[in-house]
Amino acid sequence: MGHRLPRRSLPPMMASAALLCLAMAALWPAASAAAMDDGCSSSVRRSPAASSSSSNKRKKQEEQKLWVFGDSYADTGNLGDLGRELTHAWYDPYGQTFPRRPAGRFSDGRVLTDFVASAMGMPTPVAYKVRRGARPGMLARGMNFAVGGAGVLDTGNFQRNISAQIDLFQALQAGPQRRRDNDNNNNTWTALVVVSGNDYSYASSGGASNDNNGTSAAIAYIPTVVRELREQLRRLRDEAGMKKVVVTNLHPMGCTPVFTRRINYTGCDPLANAGAAQHNAALESVLAALDPANRTFLLLDVHTPFAAFLLDAADDRDDNNGRFESPLRPCCESFSKDGYCGQQDEDGKPQYTLCGDPGRRFYWDDVHPTQAAWAAVADSFRTTVNNFLST
Ligand SMILES: *[C@@H]1O[C@H](CO)[C@@H](O)[C@H](O)[C@H]1NC(C)=O
Ligand SMILES: *[C@@H]1O[C@H](CO)[C@@H](O)[C@H](O)[C@H]1NC(C)=O
Ligand SMILES: *[C@@H]1O[C@H](CO)[C@@H](O)[C@H](O)[C@H]1NC(C)=O
Ligand SMILES: *[C@@H]1O[C@H](CO)[C@@H](O)[C@H](O)[C@H]1NC(C)=O
Ligand SMILES: *[C@@H]1O[C@H](CO)[C@@H](O)[C@H](O)[C@H]1NC(C)=O
């Protein structure tokens, strides 16, 4: 189930300038006005409504806080700009739909974090990396620690693993600013944990075992990954003070373009998908054991909507029957199979093709969904998330 991405698009953190992006994300009405004509409007228009009705059910006076831990499916700018080759998300054509320039999201626009926040009726929390530039009010709404390339365990490229991201959260809570804000009420704390497979990509590339047995090595790694994930989930509830923890399952990894390109996007890789299913079954058992009454943990099922859009469409028809045209084919595709979306030659000439309308595609690049895909996936969980957080 490995994909190559973490091997090339990883490293740590550096200073950056995602302020425009964050300012827009923080102001949903402004963002939605800007987004009306950009092909992503349906989901965006909905967010003000979500904020007025749903989330207020839970805590009228208390504002909810969302703390995000995970990888590039959730990162909104924590993986800094380390150059075009390593951190594509800071270069064209990333961000062309939102915020209309590359700003650190691994998509043409919004990512999972934005849609979960929207479902909660709140603005996207500030990315840790740019916390110093955030509007003061925004720091009271939580923070995003997720970083592209991260895994539950180390993935070989210096990103903070989930455990290190939680360490960072706890250090901030213990720090002087938190105490000054007198902000110790944890009744409204929700964690979002997004694990999308970097551990398995790393294992399948030989990183964990030093031999390259591909998908079977990744599958052998599942118990180790899920055991460590269990420990971090337990810790979020028992030690970090989270009142609710929303955790995603794995999407059908074998449908990502990095797997399907070699057969011209005509079908998914069954073994990688079986691995994802096995991870998901193990994760369900973990949650059932940690929280039999389903009080604290919610499994956010992204697998089912991904599969609905991708698996039935595996013959790559262009017949427009579905929500997405050629759903296995990425919008942004490098000329060379070892290239990447955003690649340029020495003269600055693009070495990739771009589809006409990312709003009609499911995958943006060889691993990451488009904003339109995330919006469609979010339609399937909006009510579930809301009901869970209202209890
Ligand atoms: C996570 O990262 C920390 C800090 O780099 C490291 O000490 C720890 O061993 C890592 N945890 C796992 C499970 O790999
Ligand atoms: C990799 O494959 C070889 C030969 O098929 C096998 O002996 C070895 O145990 C495998 N390693 C892993 C980690 O699966
Ligand atoms: C969260 O609140 C509970 C009381 O509801 C308290 O016992 C716990 O220490 C708090 N945890 C943190 C990390 O603030
Ligand atoms: C791949 O699929 C596209 C669209 O169906 C088609 O136009 C193209 O010729 C195919 N390429 C190969 C190498 O089969
Ligand atoms: C908790 O959720 C799981 C998975 O959705 C479900 O199978 C189980 O019946 C639920 N348990 C309770 C006590 O509601």
From TrEMBL:
<dbReference type="InterPro" id="IPR036514">
    <property type="entry name" value="SGNH_hydro_sf"/>
</dbReference>
<feature type="region of interest" description="Disordered">
    <location>
        <begin position="39"/>
        <end position="61"/>
    </location>
</feature>
<dbReference type="Pfam" id="PF00657">
    <property type="entry name" value="Lipase_GDSL"/>
</dbReference>
<dbReference type="GO" id="GO:0016788">
    <property type="term" value="F:hydrolase activity, acting on ester bonds"/>
</dbReference>
<keyword id="KW-0378">Hydrolase</keyword>
<keyword id="KW-0732">Signal</keyword>
<comment type="similarity">
    <text>Belongs to the 'GDSL' lipolytic enzyme family.</text>
</comment>
<dbReference type="InterPro" id="IPR001087">
    <property type="entry name" value="GDSL"/>
</dbReference>
<dbReference type="GO" id="GO:0006629">
    <property type="term" value="P:lipid metabolic process"/>
</dbReference>
<protein>
    <recommendedName>
        <fullName>SGNH hydrolase-type esterase domain-containing protein</fullName>
    </recommendedName>
</protein>
<feature type="signal peptide">
    <location>
        <begin position="1"/>
        <end position="33"/>
    </location>
</feature>
<keyword id="KW-0443">Lipid metabolism</keyword>
<feature type="compositionally biased region" description="Low complexity">
    <location>
        <begin position="39"/>
        <end position="55"/>
    </location>
</feature>
